Amino acid sequence: MEEQLSLEFLRVVENGAIAAARTMGFGDRHKADEVAVEAMRKTMDAVEMDGTIVIGEGERDEAPMLYIGEKVGLATHAPKALFPEVDIAVDPLEGTNLCATGAAGAIAVLAASEKGGLLHAPDIYMEKIVVGPSCKGAVELDAPVADNLKSIAKRLDRDVEDLVIIVLDRPRHEKLIDLSAGISAAVVGTSIHAVMGTGGAPEGVLTAAALRCLNGQILARLVPTKAQDNERLAKMGVKDLKRIYDTEDLAPGKKMIFACCGVTDGNLLKGVRFFGEGVRTTSMILTLDDRQVRFIDSVHLEKRPDVKVRFY
Questions:
Q1: Domain that holds residue 207
Q2: Are 137 and 22 within one domain?
């Protein structure tokens, strides 16, 4: 699956990012999200897969496309074809407000695994702690913050005062710094050592997919706050509300791909750049087998849309 679909999913996030970037700075976050969704959905239609959206824009009655349970890929047009069955988690525009205002950190994101590899999580809250490979196994979700900081500092051979920890600003800005911050904690050289806080469950699953590929760790627990949250969780097969999910619970024994593309500039990716002949994008792609981070610059020539130049 990884070899067959990696570049296809890269194309999906690139097209979503380009569409969103055309609305950057207009102040309309709904429009930015809408065009990203449409671009990604259209691109998925041409991918040779039998895909199912397990994390997306919401349940069917709330979203016209890329909704939870939607079937995507060429298999929707050729049901007898033997395309790989794939579960997909997608956030067409992580940071809608960031794109709308032209602020840094907006990205288009997708994670995919062989069927059954991704947690089906509705859009509710989730407690999380995220660390990179060096601190894997050193933290506990229910441990006091001070204890976790001491454990992280010990693993990194530095003082607690020298750690950089991102604490998510909740709930007012629940989608601003969740996913990209989590990935940064697992990439050497970003100077971010951990992320702690309560944020969206869908973003948590996408972060977990990246961390699984990077050999980092996320510990998380779903936090229903309304009666209907429990009903939605039960509908998705989640029975144990006290369960603490670990990165290793994701895609056990299965293939997995994570891809994202910068919309606006961030600490990991540059944003979309428009120039006279076309568009330039910067993306990141991870696979579970490789355990490598691939940053990819692509030039899309609009006068010749069939021509792309990629710099790996």
A1: 125-249
A2: no
